[in-house]
Amino acid sequence: MFPIKSRPLKIVIFWQLVFAVLAAILCGLLSGVNAAISGFLGAIISAIAGVAYAVLVSRHSGYSASGTLRTALRAEAVKIFIIIMSLWVVFAVFKDLQPVMFIGSFVVAVLISSMAVFVPEKLNNKVK
Questions:
Q1: DSSP for 15-67?
Q2: How far is CA 59 from the centre of its chain?
Q3: How far is Cα 109 from Cα 92, in angstroms, rounded to an integer?
Q4: DSSP letter (8 states) at residue 95
Q5: Is residue 39 within 8 Å of residue 16, measured between CB atoms?
Q6: Mean pLDDT confidence for 20-25
Q7: 72-111: pLDDT as tens digits
Q8: Are 57 and 72 in contact (CB under 8 A)?
Q9: Angle at 9 between CA 6 and CA 13, to 5 degrees
Q10: What CA–CA distance (Å, rounded) separates 37 from 104?
């Protein structure tokens, strides 16, 4: 079974992955293959970090406020670490990186991740 329990996080990660593909296509059409790879990598870094965050949060089983806060802070620290290391690796390894496409798609993917607060946890099918 997929280890992410939170519906909003699943939906946001799905849309980040969709955006990564769209960013690759759009950047590729605008500036070529290296731009497509750059756009895809920028968006996918945020999605991978979001998956790590969601998995860590989903593993939380305690019910105390301090346990929940500790889990959230630990998951956020892992997410930030993954983002920093991934950005560093891409800048160090990919010599033909298109920085505008890379950073632009990364920023949009991060903005998409912030939309999780607008996704309801459960769908309410009742009409009142």
A1: HHHHHHHHHHHHHHHHH-HHHHHHHHHHHHHHHHHHHHHHHHHHT----SHHH
A2: 18
A3: 21
A4: T
A5: no
A6: 96
A7: 899 999 999 999 999 999 999 999 999 999 999 999 999 9
A8: yes
A9: 140
A10: 13
